[in-house]
Amino acid sequence: MNAPLRRVGIVVMVLFGLLFANLNWIQAYKADEYRTSDYNGRVQVAEYERRRGNIEAGGTAFALSKETDGELKFQRAYPGGARYAHVLGYKPVNLAETGIEKFENDFLAGTSDQLIANRVKDMFTGDETGGGNVLLTISKGAQNTAFEQLRNNRRNASKGAAIAIDPRTGAVQALVSLPSFDPNPLVSHSSNEATAAFNKLEQDPEGPLKNRALGEVLPPGSTFKIVVAAAALENGVGQDTRIPAGASWTPPTSGSPIRNAAPSICPEDEVTLMNAVTESCNTGFAQLGVRLGADKIKEKARQFGFEQEDLTVGHLNEGGHPVAASRAGAMQNPDGSTDPAALAQSSIGQNNVRMTPLQGAMIAASVANGGSQMRPYLVRQWLGPDRTTSHYTAKPKELRQPVSGQVASDLREMMVSVVENGTGRNARIDGYTVGGKTGTADVRPGVPAHSWFVGFAMDKNGNPVSAVCVLLENGGDGGSAEAARIAGQIMRAAIADPGGR
Amino acid sequence: MTAAALPAPSPATTGEQPGVRLARSRRNAELSLLLVAMVLVAAYGAMVEAKVLDTITADFWMPAAAVTAVFLGLHLVIRFLAPFADPALLPAVALLNGLGVGFLRRLDLGSAPPAEREDLAIFAGTGGRQLAWTLASVVLAAGLLALMRDHRSVSRYAYTLGLAGIVLVMIPAVLPSRFSEINGAKLWVRVGGFSIQPGEFAKLALLVFFAYYLVRKREVLSLASRRFLGIDFPRGRDLGPVVVVWLISVLVLVFEKDLGTSLLYFGMFVVTLYIATERVSWLLIGLVLFFGGVYLAYVLGEVVGGPFANFYLRAQIWLDPFADPYNDGYQLVQGLLALGTGGLFGAGPGGGQPGLLPEVQNDFIFAGIGEEIGLFGLSALLVVYLLIVERGLRAALAVRDSFGKLLAGGLAFTLGLQVFVIVGGISKLIPLTGQTTPFLSAGGSSLMANWLLIAVLLRISDGARRPVTGGGGKAARPSGGPPEQLHGAPTEVIRP
Predict the structure, then answer these.
(1) Do the chains contact at A26 and B339, CB–CB below 8 Å?
(2) Would the CA dihedral through A293, A298, A299, A300 be positive or negative?
(3) Does A55 reside within a domain?
(4) In this model, does residue A370 exceed pLDDT 90?
(5) What is the pTM of this model?
(6) How many CB pairs under 8 A join A and B?
């Protein structure tokens, strides 16, 4: 019996050899992968050993970490609540982080290369120096106004967005998406509580987690006429050039006529381009668009930033909120030839044209800024844990030049006329020159139209100070006038508190 | 073998009879090894406190001292009752058991409110309960040594034990789930707040029966065979018991939803059969039957579901635990992450996050420990297990009677196989099944059964190394010879 016993001994050794080899595979070869796995709770516990940095705007911390005596040593808190939710995002224990909390995670957590000196120091002192602080461009005043005005809009729209940027730099002054949510329950250390809060928000049919200012595209309606007007100005049409208009116009090959919002708008056969913009003359722009052709309009839209798929708003060098691409959309027949009916509808911002509120603000900003479009950003500065060392300061960058200075100047005059004499009167601000364009985008019969306003404000010296886009989803009748009023309020607040401090 | 550093019981020249020339008891070697092991346990406790409490309390040594006292008691018992027992077994098992108690206490410290940590009593929590169980188990083991002065005497109760074993295996299967099911496996008998795993004891009882039955039948099984494809296959009538045990293990698999236990029983039986008959054909038949059964259960689980669904799910989790990392695959994923986080050197005793591991005091204790002591520490633990198994096999080699050989060989192999099944399970080498990790996992049944197993091995090794009194002629016979020394076990004659 000894021979088989010896073989059994060898079998046991082989089995243990397999165990040993497999442990080597797991603990040596796969160790790094497992150690940093998303499913590995130790990563989080280690992360919570160190105080995460603040996210601040205007000297106030809107995301901060408070010490606890639980297993996770720090608890994230958002004193701004719903007001800043879509700017900051949130950093939950087990769920996915979003917003600035996500794309500035390395610096906030203190694991960024920039903070390597602190980590080395910690190794010797045994302390845990906290993470770095992220300072935002947000103007507290503009953000408050945007949130309150949008939330209490007189059209009782439950969904909408507002965004304000500094046309000279691209710095975001306010960013609001409605409905919003309180991020605090999401960062609860109780996994069940956090998950329950998240599921509730995610299943909410109103979609509070959506960032409507950056991530959602809707038909822009008449605000798109700025783009068409820019294309026209570059193709031999002047401010005072008379273009065909009329109470109604039926594009060739199409049965349905295009009409104006009211019979009082451009019933005459011809109006100047200036008047067509001021009154928001649909028949005029539809015919203008068809005359210019789909390619010119699409190209102009592209130059304003439509079709860009990789824009982010956050840090100018790396990372940020992803921005949905705005689209001029198809204007062709299936055979590839231009469909005049689609082109005519597209020229007044209907059909397949889709725009984010940010894109609207960027159009207004580039017009106000002499044709130069600045890259929008939210992160103004990285401040080290010691609160004195600056690890990064944003240097504004030009994104593109959609129009020449001359065209920009013409567009500016026409947009100012909209606020002075036309549909955007509610946006006026004493002592400042305000320009803009309203928009009403039909959804489908029986559903209230979306209401838009894009605009800008300039001081007495002609320096642009703020560019805004306000969207009220299903704002309905008079919605765009309400959007203009809210935009005026936001710009007023941004003038009083330009942010970036 | 593996124990180069430990007192080698026999020079290589003794060949098939390593026990013959060993007249020294080596009890002092056992004592010193035991003390070294206990110093390790105490040092482990101190390191845990230093890490978890940031200070080493004045009574850090108390749990270590308690287990040391218990094991020293057993050492004394061995001195008097089994003076020639293998000197490496007790220290090795004591080291594992002591570290197990230490790790469970470490879990208690980690989960206690910070204010109460420093005052944690030594019999408090899971660690304290394990300490009490250790005490009880060692007393029981000592009792078995006292009661069983010659391992051959148990063969008298072979059929009784065999029947008891089958009954013990079946109890959880026939009990309603609420009395027997914990975490999806019906392995328990729960009465009030108290639960025992009868399967742990059944293992021992069945092994005694297997050893007895196979020694009786070994002539028949090994000689009467038909040759087919160059392999000797046994006759159908002799195959009967194998098929019966195969069916029992498949039934265990299906009704107790536990692949590990059935693998354990089946491996145990096939290996004792192989040792008894020296026929490779038994191994092949066994492996084919087992893997055939497993494959069938897998396919049935996929197609039919029902009682096989649990097994199918476990196989799926094994194939890709990260497919559902928060539900089905959660345990295995967390086990792997703990092991991976430990890496080569581990986070240090007390430095890991065992709280994140489900079932860390039971099935996943090896992963929990592995996070803190790393690959190097786990390798050392595996070597200690391997040492115990190989010392058991060595006792089997050295003992002179067939029953003792089979029993010791089977027990040692079963212990090794159990370690393989659970450690392989938590490290994704094989599908995970609910097995205890011998001497480490919290739980009285497992600890007691395994200490009884060790007591039997100690007894057999004592018998093997005890100098033969009265006529060296017997001792000089090649062991493996005819089993006429077996007490009360007449060999069956072949009837063609």
Answers:
(1) yes
(2) positive
(3) yes
(4) yes
(5) 0.65
(6) 141
The residue range of the domain holding A81 is: 43-136
Contact A1 B480 (CB under 8 A): yes
The values of phi and psi at residue B327, to 5°, are -120, -90
Interface probe, candidates A19, A47, A94, A198, chain B, greatest B C-beta count within 10 A: A19
Are A130 and A221 members of one domain? no
Instruction: Give the DSSP H or E segment for A50.
Output: none
For residues B170 and B158, give the distance between their C-alpha atoms in angstroms, rounded to a whole number: 18
What CATH number has the domain bearing residue A76?
A: 3.90.1310.10
Residues A243 and A354 in one domain: yes
Which of B219, B369, B386 is the mutation pick for testing A, counting most A CBs within 10 A?
B386
**In this predicted model, which residue has the larger pLDDT, B13 or B291?**
B291
Q: Are residues A100 and A244 in the same domain?
A: no
SS (HEC) of A108-136: HHCCCHHHHHHHHHHHHHCCCCCCCEEEE
pLDDT at B120: 81
Q: How far apart are CA B199 and CA A300, in angstroms?
A: 79
- List CB contacts of B166: < 8 A, sequence separation 6 or more: B202, B206, B248
Instruction: Let me know if A404 is a catalytic residue.
Output: no
Contact across the interface for B326 and A35, Cβ inside 8 Å: no
- Spell out the domain ranges in chain B: 19-485
Q: Are strands A270-272 and A258-259 parallel, antiparallel or unpaired?
A: unpaired
Nearest CB to B343; choose among A8, A16, A35: A35
- Look up residue B91 and give its two tokens: 């220290």
Residue with tokens 């009285």: B444
Kindly report the CATH number assigned to the domain that includes residue A258.
3.40.710.10
Q: Count the domains in chain A.
A: 2
A 10 A CB-CB count for B222 gives: 20
Question: Same structural domain for residues A331 and A431?
Answer: yes
Distance between CA atoms of residues A307 and A402, nearest Å: 13
Instruction: Check residue B20 and give its pLDDT.
Output: 47
CA-nearest residue of chain A to B15? A2
Closest CA to B370 of B68, B64, B103: B103
Residue A417 and residue A275 share a domain: yes
Structure tokens that stand for A452 in this block: 């838009």
A34 contacts in B (CB within 8 Å)?
A: 336-337, 339-341
Cis peptide preceding A179, ω within 30 of 0: yes
Chain A residues near residue B207 by CB distance under 8 angstroms? none
Nearest chain A residue to B397 by CA: give it. Answer: A2
Same domain, A353 and A443: yes
Is A215 in a helix, a strand, or coil? helix
Rounded distance, CA B356 to CA A191, Å? 13
* Chain A residues with beta carbon closer than 8 angstroms to that of B429: 18-19, 22
The amino acid occupying position B376 is F
The angle subtended at Cα B138 by Cα B135 and Cα B143, nearest 5°, is: 125
The proportion of chain A whose per-residue pLDDT surpasses 90, expressed as a percent, equals 74
Catalytic residue among A65, A177, A180, A222: A222
Residue B232 has pLDDT above 70, yes or no: no
Give the CB-side neighbour count of residue B452, counting CA atoms within 13 A.
Answer: 20
Question: Is residue A18, in this structure, part of any structural domain at all?
Answer: no
Q: Tell me the chain B residues in contact with residue A39 when contact means C-beta distances shorter than 8 Å.
A: 322, 325-326, 333-334, 337
B274 contacts in chain A (CB < 8 Å): 4, 8
* Identity of residue B46: A
> Which A-chain residues 17-36 have CB contacts (< 8 A) with chain B?
18-20, 22-24, 26-28, 30-35
DSSP assigned state of A49: T
Average pLDDT, chain B: 82
Look at residues A136, A160, A191 and tell me which one is the last residue of a structural domain. Answer: A136
Tokens standing for residue B439? 């001497």
Q: Single out the residue in A136, A153, A187 at which a domain terminates.
A: A136
Verify that A336 and A234 share a domain, yes or no: yes
